[in-house]
Each structure stands twice: as structure tokens, then as C-alpha cells.
Amino acid sequence: MSPDMDALANIESAVPEPGAAAADDKQPTGRLIAHSLLNTAVTGVQLPIGVYLPAIYAQQYGISLTVLGAIFLVERIWGTATDPLVGWLCDKTRSRLGRRKVWIGAGSVLFVAMNALLFFPPAGVTPAFLVAVLLVTFLSLSMIQIPYYAWSGELSGDYHERTRITAYQTIASGLALFSVLLMPTLADRFYPGDQMMKLHGMGAAIILPVIPTVLLAFWAFPDHSVATPRVKAAKVPWRQASRAVRSEKVLFRVMTADLVITFAQGLRGALFVFFVSFVVGKPEWAGGLFLFQFVIGIFAAPIWQWIARIKGKHRALIATELGQAAVNIGLVLVGAGDIPLLLALTVAQGLMQGSGNMLLRAMLADIADEYRLRTGVNRTAMLFSVFSVSGKAGVALPVGIALPLIAWFGFDPKLAANTPTALTAVALVFSLGPGLAHLIGAALVRSFDIDEDRQVKIREELAMRAAD
Fold first, then answer.
1. In the chain, how many domains are there?
2. Is the dihedral of CA 44, 46, 51, 56 positive or negative?
3. CATH number reported for the structural domain that contains residue 336 in this entry
4. Where would a tag sit more exposed on the chain, N or C end, judged by fewer CB atoms within 10 A?
5. Residue 301 three-state SS
């Protein structure tokens, strides 16, 4: 064990979290639905920020694509610092509300305030304003997301039940994205060309559900960390703790897989409106097709849960990543006015949309068990925070790379007609970039070895340790 791991092992006693090992039975469906709805706040804001905000802020406030790309890249780099810090602090927190709920409650209030500024901005928005608001927005998102996913991973120790939990969360994400993305679709239909109407509609759909879904999640399940006894422990800097967690080889591969998979999704999302509007030449189809893709994804989550139950999580993940690679590479064949082929590929993409993220989160809960068995330390929130860094980087990099890249080839969304070179650049980056990323994601999880049999043995050993 490395010195960092030795230090971590002294942070807390080896007593398992009260509920983390005991909740092996199937969770009540109603309460699981209530708990999963909180995922709407976690995911509902991320695609609009990556897909619509750059285009709207460029067109309405004259901020260049290069500047916007730099802003969004810096904000996500900021997240690489805040996520591990939030995870470390969350694992160390002691309160009557428990470790998770107190952070989620505080983060939700800040999240609502920042999104009000982001989606209902004042006149004369400047790059400095956007930087400041995004900084605090992503901090508030970390305060909700990291504790929530750690809490979700502690609801059950059962291998398949964890996939069921993440499947419900994926469905909730799809419903959130449906409600948020419905707004620009309706704006295109009833208020064509009104970009601010799109922005305000998405903001309302993001902000209004936050507090009700937080209260439902708090009602649905207890935070078992309330009962965790306070233990005197050696002080370890959060950077040292984070570095130790990142040294885990299995976690690193899963985290990198999440990075490239989320990169693929973010790249596709960042260029989707530009691809449909300028390459295919059907701007009126952009919002509707993007919405349709996520509607399909809502119904696909139970299918991938079933496949994972039969084949195992990592094998199901490999299958969906190879499928998504084929679909994205197939987008090279879509040309001007080719709606039937684009529609068919959109359906295929929707059937696999989000399945990789769902399965990776379920796999991470198994990694957390193995880590706790080996080190005697519960670092669930820290593990999810490090994992979240990869996800946020995967969202940021497409905006920070793709937008300046297509701008370099001469693409300008303010022009009615772009050059063939610019349109070819948009098409190739939109299709081949995600295709290659999904292939890399499949390769990274190929050797993942925590299957159902091993996970059962890990839980049994944790239960034996708790009984000693």
C-alpha cells in the first residue's frame, strides 16, 4: 500500500456505513422513483449549457465562439478542483442531516440562484459576467451531484439492484432533458428566431423542479451517515486524499472511459444544432430531433438494465459503446436534406443514449465496495467526486476544442451560408470525433473484472468484518 493509502486508512475506522451493507433487498419502487427524480436537477442543466447556450450567447451578445470555448473550458477545469474538494468535505461532514443531505440542501439553493442569472441574464452580458455565473453554477452543481451519487451508491449492496437504481436515475435524466429540450422546440414552432424565448423556457424547466425534487429525495430514503459515529482521525489534506484515490488503476480506467464517453456525447451535443441547421440545411428540425433522441433514450434505459443483468455491466457497456461508434461514424453519410437517414441514425443513437453513463455509475459503486474492503476506509463520495471530474471534463473539452476548431475552418453561425470547407469540418468533427471516442471507451472497460460473483464475495467479506 502506498504512503497515500496508509494515510487514508487512518482517516476513519473500518466500521462500515450503517445501511450501506444492509440494504441488499429490492428498494420500494415508489421511493426509488422519488429519490431518482433528484437526478433531474443534476443533469437537466448540463446539455442546455453545452448545446444551446454557446449559440445563443454568441448570437445575442456577440461573444465569439473562440472566447466561449475558452470560457467553458476554464469553467470545467475549475470543476476538477471543486469536485474532489466537495467529495472530501462531504465524506468528512457530520451533522444531524447526515453527510449527504446537508450538502444537497445547500447546493440546491445556490443552484437555483445561479441558474436564474444564467438563463434570465440582464442586458449587456459580458464574458466576465458569464465566467462568474458559470463558476458558481458548477460549484453548486458539484454540491448536489457528488453527495447525491455517493448516497445512491450506498442505497444497496446488491450487484443488480445498483444497476436498477442507476436505470431509474437515467430515466429521470431523460425526463428532465425532455422537459428542458421541449422548450426550444416549442420556441422554434411558435416563436421562430426568438433565441431569448428559448433561453427563458429552458431556464424555467431547469429551475422550477429543483426544490420539490430535493424534498422528495429527502423523504424517500434516510441518509445512513447520520448514524455514523464520530471517530478521531489523523488529518490528511484533501489533495493527498484525492491523489491517492486517483492512483487506483481500476478507477482510473473507468474514469477515463467516462471521460471519453462523455466527450463523445458533449461533442455531438455541441455541434448538433450546427450540423442539422447548416450541414443538413434543416434548422427547423434541430430542436425536434434532439428532443426525439432523448425521448427514445427514456424508454431504452430498462432495456440496458435487462442486458446488464444477463451479460454483466461491463459487457453491456462494451456493446453499447461499439453500437454508438457505428452510429456516429455513419453520420458521415448524411448530406444536405437527407432527413430519412438522419432520423434513422437518431433513433439508433437514442436507443443507446446514456446507457454508458448509467452502467459506469453502477460499476463505480462496486469499485467503492472493493476499495473499502481493501483499505478499511469509506471514500464513496471521494470516488464519485473524482469520477465526476472526468464527466465534467468530458463535457467541457468538446466546447473548448470543437468550437474554436470549426471557427478556424471558417464556420460562423451568424452567416446565412458558410463555405463548403467549413461545412465539411462541422460534419467530420460531429461524426468521426464521437465515433472514435466511443471505440476508446469500449476498449478501456474490456478488462474490468468486478463481475457479479466477485461483487457478492466482496459484500460477504464486508459483512463478516462488520460482525467481528
1. 1
2. positive
3. 1.20.1250.20
4. C
5. helix
